[in-house]
Amino acid sequence: MEKNIVPDRGIKLTKQDKRITISQKGVTIRHENKPVDSEIIGSVYLLIDCSSSMDVEEKLNHAKNGAAKFAMEAKTKGYLVGLIQFDSSATHLCEPQKELSVLHQHLRSMEASGNTNMTDAILLATEKLMNKKGARVMVVATDGVPDNPDSALEAGQQAKKSGIEIITIGTDDADRDFLRKLASRPEFGTKVSSVQLEQAIASVAKMLLSKRGG
User: Fold this and answer.
1) What local confidence, expressed as pLDDT, does residue 43 receive?
2) Residue ranges of the chain with pLDDT lower than 70?
């Protein structure tokens, strides 16, 4: 049973003003009458290349498995995880969230087709992350060169100027120099073999700032 904490100055709080409650489970802080999870420190979007070339050597399956493992680790570090796929266009699949079942459902339904419109994916992720509080990160996983590298780099620059961190992972035909330019720092841009893609995406979660700052 929750008990409202009311100041001792004869001030009566309205229903909309109530912010702090005590229950048997402890103290709950509320913002605009909604619970606030103090463990959430940021939001991250996975941008997964679903172009037709990802259908070769099971690269898309490696990316899906890696994304699922990344999301689990990111969640333990206090991040909400969202998903965007890109082929000839960019598609927003789910908002950053703590409950990963929706993300897993979308990962399973992704199929490879079309080209590599990375620019629109970066712009979409930037738009979605712009008003998020805390750390903001996008992880771009691709197996090749985007349709328009210059516009992708320009979109990435806009994101970085807005305080969004970018981590890039590429395989096969991906340009290592491009990956490093797009990333927030050169060391945030890596290139691996197709069979290493799953592990590479999963291990990126270790680069995220944890709840304890490490």
Assistant:
1) 97
2) 1-38, 211-214
Q: Hunting for tokens 């996008």 — which residue is that?
A: 138
Complete DSSP assignment for 136-167: EEEEEEESS--S-HHHHHHHHHHHHHTT-EEE
Task: Find the DSSP H helices in 24-100.
Answer: 59-76
Beta bridge mates, 22:
3, 27
- Which residue type does 16 have? Q
Quick check: pTM over 0.70?
yes
Give all domains of the chain, ordered by start, each with its CATH number. 3-35 (no CATH), 42-207 (3.40.50.410)
Q: What pLDDT score does 210 carry?
A: 72
Q: In angstroms, rounded to a whole number, what is the distance separating the alpha carbons of residues 170 and 101?
A: 26
Question: Which amino acid is present at 129?
Answer: L
